[in-house]
Every structure is written in structure tokens, then in C-alpha cells.
């Protein structure tokens, strides 16, 4: 299918070393005296979108999507979570602590509204932000989450992920140290190989990759360790409830994700009050942060971001101007590859034995079906506002 092929199409980065850019090293002082570092890419006067990276990233990852932000008319913002880059470490922090930091950053940047995109562990941080009322009222459109991390005790989680919850705290804290040492050696080997292959020079996208990695480990493993410990927490130990998410959510999951099982992803989507959920076949955990995938999901929400920004917050309009969306607001003349018809096919009958029933008096919504013990299928009511969809391929 053309849509799936455009989703998988490759892109190239046209910016190599953002560390010299002023927009890459913004810092903000939090109320408790900590510093948080922020990077910006895309269109400077576009509609803001906070981009929240996964476990091993840093704020500089947002420069991978610079061209996408310019094309779609979006101002892409990424902040280093505590212990990464220039952000002060915060011991024993929680997901809701990050929501308070984002509230502070948005206030100091004078952002009246913004979109949210999160990948993996960053997706949980984004959902926590959507549980915080002062932030939720500023969030545009649907909160976009891809390859969302599931707590280890989530039904259907892979065995090696479930084990994290039962490891002694000392072993949990040692894993990031070992992982970091291995990454350092691997990164150095990769860099030498690439420099040798290209006569001592790195391609811009490779240079950016190493800058992101170096910035993530600028302070050592402190921030990485704290966040890894957060990943080991059970559902009951999280300081926010998915059922308390105050905004609609757009969730994507890779069918071939090797870290988060597709059943665990479905259960996360099921718990969110208003969630549109899409499964992408043949796609693993990291695939959904590729540039083509990010362009796809941002394009899908772009018009809603712009419409709400103008109509609800008068974003980009002079005082007293009519709150209607100009046809050219936020757009560029470049075509967007993912502006194609979406062929969806609903299929939620596989691997659903652990899915709890949910009933509602509200009409509509997709029918939830759960295999019986003898292999049959029984109905368990409807799931209003929670579509479980599958983007299918002819392959």
C-alpha cells in the first residue's frame, strides 16, 4: 500500500552539529533551584510541540526532525530530563515531577499552548503531563505517544521485562552502569569505523547521533540510572493513573516491538479514557521515532493543532483579530509525503486473553472481543472513544 510505504520511507538529516546553535543550549531555572536545558528546532514562530525522547536520549534528538518542523510549520521543543545534558539531576524523581518541570518551562517560554509527542519512556512522561490539570488545559489536539513503555507487571509483558520488577535495588542500579560502559565502547568503535569509511569525516546524521549520545552522558549515568529505576516500577508504584489522563490520546505501537508486547500496548490503550490506538505491522520499538514515522504522526495532528491554537488561544494573531485559521498558517509550500488516504483495518481478536472487560451505556465504539478458554469469542461490551486499529499491508 502506498500509505504504508510512505510511512516506511527514509529521510536524511541536513543538520550535523547543533551544539553551536543558541537554540540548542537554552536553560531555565526551576523553582527549586535546578536547571533544565532545552533545545528548539523547526519553525521558530510555529505552533509549539514538546518532543519527549526515550530512555537513552537527550534534547538534541529534536534536530533530527528540524526539516519536518519547518515543513509542517511546527516549533519543536525538547528538554533534557534531570541528569541529562545541562539539566540538574533530581534523585528519586517521579513522572509527575517532570509534569511540574514542563509547566515551569512552558510558563518561562510564554507558551500559551502546545502539542505533545512522546516516545517509549518519554511517552509515559507525556501522559503524566496530560494528567496535570494546569498543563492539560494548554495541550493541543491529541497527545501523541509511540512505542509507549509499559510497567514490567503489565499483563502480556515480555518475560525479560517482567524480571526487572523483581531484581534487588542494587542490581537494578548497576544495570545502567554496565549498559553505559558497553555503549561507550560500542560508540567509540562506531565512530572510528565511520571516520575511516569516510576519510576522517562523519556524515551530518552520524555526527548528530554522536552529539545526542555524548550529551545524554554529559553527567555520567546519574540521570540514566534514575530513569531506569522509574522503568522498573510497577503500575501501582506510578504516581499517575492512565485512567486520569485528561486529554485524548493518539497511540501507535509496533507489532514486532521487542521491548513492549503488543498485548501490553493494547492494555495501556484500554486504560486511557479517550484513546485512538494504531498497530503498525512489521515495525519494532525504535522504528516509530524514525523521521518518516514522526512526520506521519505529526502530519495527522497538525491541522488540529493549528485550529485549536488559533481558535482557543488566538495563537499567532494580532490583538483583536478574528479567531479563524488562515489557510496558510503554519504551512510551507513543500509537499508532505504522508498526506495520503489511510487504509485502516480493525483487528483486536488476537492475543487478548488478559484484556479485562469494559462496559458502557454509551452507544458506538469498537466492539471488544476476548477469546474464550475453548478458543471461541465472547463479547465484553463496547469501548467508546478507544479505537483499536491495525494499519495493514498487502505484503
Oligomeric nature of the chains: single chain
How many strands in all? 12
Radius of gyration: 21 Å
Rough shape?
globular
**Cα separation of the termini:** 9 Å
Low-confidence stretches: 1-16, 326-395
Helix content: 25-40%
Strand content: 15-25%
* Biggest sheet layout: 10 strands, mixed
Helices, by number, come to 11
Order of helices and strands: HEEEHEHEHHEHHHHEHEHEEEE
* Class derived from helix and strand content: alpha/beta
Strand order of the largest sheet: 1-2-4-3-5-6-7-8-12-9
Mean pLDDT: 74
Task: Please tell me about this protein's structure.
With 395 residues, the chain is α/β, with parallel strands linked by helices. 33% of the residues lie in helices and 17% in strands. The chain is built from eleven helices and twelve strands. The strands form two sheets. A ten-stranded mixed β-sheet has the order 1-2-4-3-5-6-7-8-12-9, with helices on both faces. α2 links the parallel β3 (47-52) and β4 (74-79). The chain is globular and about 60 Å long. Mean pLDDT is 74; it is low at 1-16 and 326-395.
Spell out the blueprint of helices and strands.
Elements: H1 2-8, E1 26-29, E2 35-42, E3 47-52, H2 66-72, E4 74-79, H3 95-108, E5 115-119, H4 121-129, H5 133-136, E6 143-146, H6 159-162, H7 169-197, H8 204-216, H9 222-231, E7 249-254, H10 262-271, E8 275-280, H11 291-313, E9 344-345, E10 366-371, E11 377-383, E12 386-391
Parallel strand pairs: 3-4, 3-5, 5-6, 6-7, 7-8, 8-12
Antiparallel strand pairs: 1-2, 2-4, 9-12, 10-11
Helix pairs in contact: 3-4, 7-9
Amino acid at each position: 500500500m502506498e500509505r504504508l510505504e510512505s510511512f516506511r520511507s527514509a529521510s536524511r538529516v541536513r543538520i550535523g552539529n547543533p551544539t553551536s546553535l543558541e537554540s540548542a543550549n537554552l536553560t531555565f531555572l526551576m523553582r527549586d533551584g535546578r536547571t533544565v536545558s532545552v533545545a528548539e528546532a523547526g519553525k521558530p514562530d510555529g505552533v509549539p510541540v514538546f518532543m519527549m525522547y526515550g530512555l537513552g536520549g537527550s534534547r538534541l534528538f529534536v534536530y533530527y526532525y528540524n526539516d519536518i518542523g519547518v515543513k509542517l510549520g511546527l516549533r519543536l521543543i525538547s528538554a533534557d530530563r534531570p541528569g541529562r545534558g545541562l539539566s540538574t539531576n533530581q534523585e528519586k524523581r517521579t513522572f509527575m515531577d517532570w509534569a511540574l518541570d514542563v509547566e515551569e518551562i512552558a510558563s518561562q517560554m510564554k507558551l500559551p499552548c502546545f502539542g505533545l509527542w512522546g516516545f517509549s519512556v518519554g511517552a509515559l512522561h507525556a501522559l503524566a503531563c496530560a494528567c496535570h490539570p494546569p498543563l492539560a488545559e494548554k495541550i493541543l489536539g491529541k497527545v501523541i505517544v509511540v512505542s509507549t513503555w509499559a510497567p514490567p507487571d503489565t499483563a502480556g509483558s515480555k518475560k525479560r521485562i517482567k524480571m526487572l520488577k523483581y531484581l534487588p535495588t542494587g542490581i537494578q542500579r548497576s544495570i545502567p552502569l554496565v549498559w553505559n560502559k558497553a555503549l561507550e565502547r560500542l560508540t567509540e568503535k562506531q565512530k572510528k569505523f565511520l571516520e575511516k569509511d569516510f576519510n576522517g569525516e562523519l556524515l551530518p546524521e552520524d555526527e548528530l547521533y554522536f552529539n545526542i549520545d555524548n550529551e545524554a552522558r554529559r553527567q555520567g549515568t546519574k540521570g540514566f540510572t534514575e530513569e531506569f529505576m522509574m522503568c522498573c516500577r510497577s503500575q501501582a508504584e506510578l504516581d499517575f493513573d492512565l485512567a486520569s489522563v485528561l486529554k485524548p490520546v493518539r497511540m501507535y505501537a509496533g507489532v514486532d516491538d521487542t521491548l513492549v508486547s503488543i498485548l501490553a500496548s493494547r492494555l495501556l490503550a484500554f486504560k486511557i479514557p479517550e484513546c485512538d490506538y494504531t498497530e503498525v505491522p512489521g515495525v519494532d520499538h525504535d522504528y516509530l521515532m524514525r523521521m518518516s514515522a514522526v512526520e506521519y504522526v505529526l502530519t495527522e495532528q497538525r491541522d488540529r493543532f493549528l485550529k485549536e491554537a488559533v481558535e482557543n488561544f488566538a495563537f499567532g494573531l494580532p490583538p483583536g483579530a478574528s479567531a479563524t485559521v488562515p489557510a496558510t498558517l503554519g504551512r510551507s509550500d513543500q509537499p508532505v509525503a504522508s498526506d495520503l488516504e489511510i487504509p485502516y483495518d480493525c483487528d483486536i481478536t488476537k492475543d487478548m486473553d488478559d484484556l479485562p472487560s469494559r462496559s458502557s451505556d454509551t452507544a458506538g465504539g469498537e466492539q471488544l472481543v476476548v477469546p474464550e478458554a475453548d478458543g471461541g469469542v465472547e463479547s465484553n461490551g463496547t469501548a467508546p472513544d478507544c479505537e483499536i486499529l491495525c494499519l495493514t499491508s498487502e505484503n
